[in-house]
Amino acid sequence: MIRSSVLLLSCSLLVAWCATSDASDKRPTKAAPPAQWRQWRGERRDGASSETGLLDRWETNGPPLVWKATGLGRGFSSVSVADGRIFTMGDRDQGQFVIALNVANGKELWATRIGDVWEPQGYAGPRCTPTVDGALLYATGPHGDIVCLECASGKEVWHRNMATEFQGRMHSGWGFSESPLVDQDRVVCTPGGADAAIVALDKKTGAEIWRAAIPAIGNLGGDGAAYSSIVVSQGGGVKQYVQLMGRGVVSVAAKDGKFLWGYNRVANGTANVPTPVVHGNYVFCSSGYQTGAALLELQAKPGGGVDAREVYFLDGKEFQNHHGGMILLGNYIYAGHGHNGGAPTCLEWKTGKTVWRHNRGPGTGSAAIAYADGNLYFRFENGVMALIGAAPQGYEEKGQFKIPDVGAPSWSHPVIAGGRLFLREQNELLCYDVKR
């Protein structure tokens, strides 16, 4: 009798569990929070998205196009994505604007003028990716403007100019290009001035917190800011801001802007562009124009401070990243190799050994890259977009397509957020569905 009762109870529980399980499949589930890509190169400034469930291969014509937005103006800015909005920049006839779009359909929400248009040597428009921090966002323009705007309305909160207020300068003539770093209570940027190479500003008011002067670190390159963006390192046990400038890679203490170390060998005199890769006590850095790449190890100095020791240097023939960025995944660096080239390459980052390289990539020119869910998203200068496996075992192409209406170098970095691939192409923004 007891055995029969237990059996009956077990069957009842099983039926109830099955009914509940079946019903839960039909009930609407709570939507996951929207994916974010709130700043230059993603949440950690490393080019990598944590999203999963994405397409592992593309059909012949690439992933489906969800929508296309037009009217963004000229420029090479990428996009940031946060809380249902997309933020980018562009030069329109009336001036230079920060622009917000609806992530669902690409419709413009607002546009705020921050300065004059930028038209040097044929490469018109801004390059900055706006940085989102809660209800506010921050952007820089080629003339040196740095602004804080409200995300919801585009209303200006504060506005400063790195060239006029900090005697800032670029080491070559394509204008201020960095995407500002927001860290706790401050926004950090790179005027490149003699006594204000890097400055920290109160993120709510724009008031100066500190300014950092950089001493001479070598003869290569040129004085001033470059085209990279600041990253945070804890190397050698000291929180610091690492930046590639005109004279090479430099570091200042986060708390007060005190100069910590500099490395000149990776600098060139034309354009130092790639954002350094930081991990633990190491910094991997590179530039084009036949310069090369290096791995630095950061060590605490007796009595305080940090030293940077060169672990290895690769000359330009071995590896150089012109622009387009580098991504560290596990024990390997993935990037495009070559000046005006984007040959897909995998390096063993602790040794500098080339694990594989595909010299005849699917596209031509420099390649801007991002990573998500086991794959690299390579965007070549001629507008070819390729999906390439991120694995040290060898090169594997998993699909490609041509971005339509490419009329200028296709340089803006790809962004993956919310199962979508966002590609800024000058006056347009293309949104593709890459969800599996």
Summarize the structure.
The protein is mainly β and 436 residues long.
Present the secondary structure layout.
Blueprint (H helix, E strand, L loop, with lengths): L1 H25 L21 E2 L15 E6 L9 E3 L2 E8 L2 E8 L5 E8 L15 E3 L2 E5 L4 E6 L5 E6 H4 L15 E3 L2 E4 L8 E5 L5 E5 L18 E3 L6 E6 L2 E6 L5 E5 L13 E3 L2 E6 L4 E9 L5 E10 L10 E4 L2 E6 L5 E6 L4 E5 L9 E6 L2 E6 L3 E6 L7 E6 L12 E3 L2 E6 L2 E6 L3
Parallel strand pairs: 1-27
Antiparallel strand pairs: 2-33, 3-4, 4-5, 5-6, 7-8, 8-9, 9-10, 11-12, 12-13, 13-14, 15-16, 16-17, 17-18, 19-20, 20-21, 21-22, 23-24, 24-25, 25-26, 27-28, 28-29, 29-30, 31-32, 32-33
Overall geometry comes to globular
Give start-end ranges of low-pLDDT stretches.
1-33
Quaternary form: single chain
Strand neighbour order, sheet with most strands: 1-27-28-29-30
Major β-sheet annotation = 5 strands, mixed
Q: Give the termini distance in whole angstroms.
A: 52 Å
Find the structural class using helix and strand composition: mainly beta
* Average of per-residue pLDDT values: 92
* Helical content band: under 10%
Which band does the percent of strand residues land in? 35-45%
How many extended strands? 33
Our count of helices gives: 2
Question: What value does the Rg take, in angstroms?
Answer: 23 Å
Describe the structure.
The protein is mostly beta strands and 436 residues long. It is 7% helix and 41% strand. It contains 2 helices and 33 strands. A 5-stranded mixed β-sheet has the order 1-27-28-29-30, with no helix packed on it. A 4-stranded antiparallel β-sheet has the order 2-33-32-31, with no helix packed on it. The longest helix has 25 residues, at 2-26. The radius of gyration is 23 Å and the shape is globular. Mean pLDDT is 92; it is low at 1-33.
